[in-house]
Amino acid sequence: MNKVWKALDDPTRRRILELLRSGPRSAGELGAEFDMSAASMSHHLGTLADAGLVEREKKGQFVYYELNTTVFQDLLEWILAMKGQDR
Amino acid sequence: MNKVWKALDDPTRRRILELLRSGPRSAGELGAEFDMSAASMSHHLGTLADAGLVEREKKGQFVYYELNTTVFQDLLEWILAMKGQDR
DNA sequence: TAGATATTTAGAATATCTTCTAAATATCTA
DNA sequence: TAGATATTTAGAAGATATTCTAAATATCTA
C-alpha cells in the first residue's frame, strides 16, 4: 500500500490514471497530453506500474498501459474504514 | 485534493488517522505512539490539519485532534470512479 | 509568581522526488 | 542494412519532505 499512496501523490500520475479510464493508451499517446519530456513520462509510468496501478503490454514498438482496478480495492477499504469510524 | 493526497502519502500520518478512529486524542497522546520528537509529530499533525483531515481543539494546555471524515468523501468518489471505469 | 508541562515554530541537515538531457535499446520501414 | 520512431535507463540539478535540536508560547499548579 505504501507504493500505492506514493504513486497517487502526484497530479501528473493521477491525471494519467484518469486518462486510462477510457481504455489503454501507449506511452507516447499519454505523453502527448503533458508538457513534459518522454523520459519524465516514462518515470511516472514506471512508478504507477511499480505500485500495480497500471499494467504494461508491449505491442511492436509501442508500450500500452492499462488501468489495473483491483489495486483500488484496498484503498477503498481503508477509506471506508476511516469514514465509518469503526462501524 | 492535492493537499489531501500529499497528507496521506506518509505512513506516520496514515497511522495517526487510524488512531483517531477511536476518538479524539491530544498531540501528546498521539506522539506517545511514535518514536519521534514532539516537534516532528506537531509537523505531521499540521499537515493533516492543513489538508482538512483532522480538526484541532485546544483544551487548557492540551490540543486535541479529531478525524474530519467529510474530506474522505471526495477521495472515495475519485476511487470509485477509477474502479468503475466510467460505468 | 516560578517552575513544570504541552505544543508549536524556526532553522538546519539529510533524504527523497521530479524533471531534465544524453544515451541505450527495441522495433519498424524503405 | 540504415535510418526513423518509441520507449527506457543513467546521471545530474533543483525542489520538496522529513526529521532533528533549540527556543518560543501557552497553560497549569505549588
Structural class, from helix and strand content of chain A? alpha+beta
Global morphology of chain A = elongated
Largest interface: A-B, 25 and 26 residues
Distance from first to last alpha carbon of chain A: 22 Å
Number of strands of chain A: 3
- Counted up, domains of chain A total 1
CATH topology description of chain A: Arc Repressor Mutant, subunit A
Number of helices of chain A: 5
Q: What level of helicity do the residues of chain A show? A: 55-70%
Uncertain stretches of 5 or more adjacent residues of chain A: none
**CATH homology superfamily of chain A:** Winged helix-like DNA-binding domain superfamily/Winged helix DNA-binding domain
Largest sheet report of chain A: 3 strands, antiparallel
Note the beta-strand portion of chain A. Answer: 15-25%
Written overview of the protein:
The structure is a homodimer of 87-residue chains. Chain A has 87 residues and is α+β, with helices and mostly antiparallel strands. Chain A has one domain: Orthogonal Bundle (Arc Repressor Mutant, subunit A). Chain A contains five helices and three strands. A three-stranded antiparallel beta sheet of chain A has the order 1-3-2. In chain A, strand 2 and strand 3 form a beta hairpin. In chain A, helix 1 packs antiparallel against helix 4 (38-50). The radius of gyration of chain A is 14 Å and the shape is elongated. Chains A and B meet through helix 1, helix 2 and helix 5 of A and helix 1, helix 2 and helix 5 of B. The structure holds a DNA duplex (30 and 30 nucleotides).
